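Budget justification aside, the reviewers requested a transparent look at the raw inputs and outputs of the sequence design task funded under Objective 1. We therefore reproduce one unedited record. The lines immediately below are the structure tokens for a 374-residue chain.
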């Protein structure tokens, strides 16, 4: 890395750290630290052979700390199931022969195969590791080691689940609203960039808008992930009785926005074809660019003014935005009808395709927004 690159990295490091240290992440880190501290303190009081392996209790506390209560419970049970399978596997090897290169390799190999099935979740890697520990560390005292190991990990898991439940159990409902808002903003910004390109010298100098299709698809995945985690975070969470959100309505919003994205990508390809002849060569009459730009800006304004509440109601901060967009698209269609006989069909095809995409975008948004606009 060059010296200037190092300086730039150092300069932006505080900003990056600040963006990563969100309140939710700081709380999760504090809860993990607290669970480990409690597990280490309590582990020494377990009777019998478990008292000899207190360092496994903090490990159990760590493996139980997941973003939601349900995922914590699910992964904890999967971890315990994997540990039990690993101990049984190591025990079966010891019944045949003592620990040696062949038996250890066999146990680890079979454990890796079991882990590869995915039945034991994110912590499935502990299966071959536990089998290895039982055979090497446990050795002649494998039965006592296995019992102590399992007891201490179970203790840590119980403590981790208790901390996760009693101290502000994670509830990620607000993340859905933020992701949807960000998604709408990016769609609106993209449509505005297309309108700006139509008002510049043709072909436009900027071409970044022509390659945003993958970014829009990533935004769709981000919202799907946020909805999944929000739904998962409500299960068994006592805070969900107080903090509510209509996730079914959010799914309807996402379905409408996915339809919008399909048509936005289509009209983007059309404009790219007009500008640079790729992915398909198209023509656009210069006098049609202004009404196209006005219609694109009007539809972008609908997405910009759209806000969603926790009850799922869609709210337009400008109640006339939807009607304005319908008028702009209708005027564009009328302009195309007027020029239909005087303009060659090759120059009308692109404008007609964009007009149809905008009409379908408004049709997708109408069930969510028309009542508010009225």
């Amino acid at each position: 890395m060059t010296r200037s690159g190092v300086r730039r990295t150092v300069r932006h490091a505080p900003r990056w750290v600040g963006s990563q240290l969100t309140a939710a992440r700081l709380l999760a880190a504090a809860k993990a630290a607290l669970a480990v501290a409690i597990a280490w303190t309590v582990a020494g009081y377990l009777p019998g052979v478990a008292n000899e392996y207190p360092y496994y209790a903090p490990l159990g506390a760590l493996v139980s700390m997941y973003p939601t209560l349900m995922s914590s419970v699910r992964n904890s049970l999967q971890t315990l199931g994997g540990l039990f399978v690993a101990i049984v596997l190591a025990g079966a090897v010891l019944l045949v022969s003592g620990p040696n290169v062949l038996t250890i390799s066999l146990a680890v190999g079979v454990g890796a195969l079991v882990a590869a099935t995915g039945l034991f979740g994110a912590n499935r890697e502990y299966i071959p590791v536990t089998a290895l520990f039982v055979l090497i560390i446990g050795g002649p005292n494998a039965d006592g080691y296995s019992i102590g190991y399992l007891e201490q990990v179970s203790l840590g898991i119980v403590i981790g689940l208790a901390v996760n439940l009693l101290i502000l159990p994670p509830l990620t409902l607000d993340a859905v609203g933020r992701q949807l808002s960000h998604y709408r903003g990016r769609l609106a910004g993209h449509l505005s960039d297309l309108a700006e390109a139509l008002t510049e010298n043709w072909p436009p100098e900027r071409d970044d808008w022509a390659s945003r299709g993958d970014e829009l698809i990533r935004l769709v995945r981000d919202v799907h992930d946020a909805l999944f985690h929000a739904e998962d975070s409500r299960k068994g969470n006592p805070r969900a009785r107080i903090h509510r959100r209509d996730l079914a309505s959010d799914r309807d919003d996402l379905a409408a926005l996915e339809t919008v994205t399909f048509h936005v990508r289509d009209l983007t390809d059309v404009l790219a074809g007009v500008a640079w002849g790729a992915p398909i060569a198209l023509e656009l009459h210069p006098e049609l660019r202004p009404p196209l730009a006005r219609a694109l800006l009007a539809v972008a304004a609908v997405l910009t003014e759209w806000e969603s509440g926790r009850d799922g109601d869609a709210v337009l901060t400008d109640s006339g935005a939807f009607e304005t967009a319908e008028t702009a698209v209708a005027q564009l269609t009328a302009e195309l009808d007027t020029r239909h006989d005087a303009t060659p069909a090759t120059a009308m095809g692109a404008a007609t395709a964009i007009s149809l995409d905008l009409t379908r975008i408004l049709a997708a948004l109408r069930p969510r927004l028309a009542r508010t606009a009225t």
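The beta strands are 306-308, 314-316. The chain has two domains: 3-166, 175-373. Computational costs for records of this kind are itemized in the attached budget.
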